[in-house]
Design goal:
Layout: H1 3-31, H2 50-86
Helix pairs in contact: 1-2
């Protein structure tokens, strides 16, 4: 691999690292947001409607799964950058 190609890959990996870092932060905020408030439309006297709790739990599980995937990809990018720096 030429030096020019190596620099191009390094630049792409750094761009990916920045994008993934932001995605992980956004997903983390979404997954760990507090649940609360009144039920929409006053459909029940319960402060949080059971259906809302179920939907929130599902959305949280999806966001956590996506966050784990993004964190794994970010770790792979860090490893690849390390290999470039080490010349391997």
């Amino acid at each position: 691999m030429t030096t020019k190609e190596l620099h191009a890959f390094r630049r792409r990996l750094l761009e990916m690292k920045n994008r993934l870092g932001g995605a992980v932060t956004t997903l983390e905020a979404e997954a760990l947001r507090p649940v609360g408030g009144e039920a929409a439309g006053k459909l029940s006297n319960v402060p949080i409607h059971p259906a809302d709790l179920s939907a929130d739990a599902y959305e949280e599980a999806v966001a956590i799964g996506m966050m784990e995937n993004e964190a794994h990809l970010l770790a792979e990018v860090h490893d690849a950058l390390g290999r470039i720096e080490a010349g391997t």
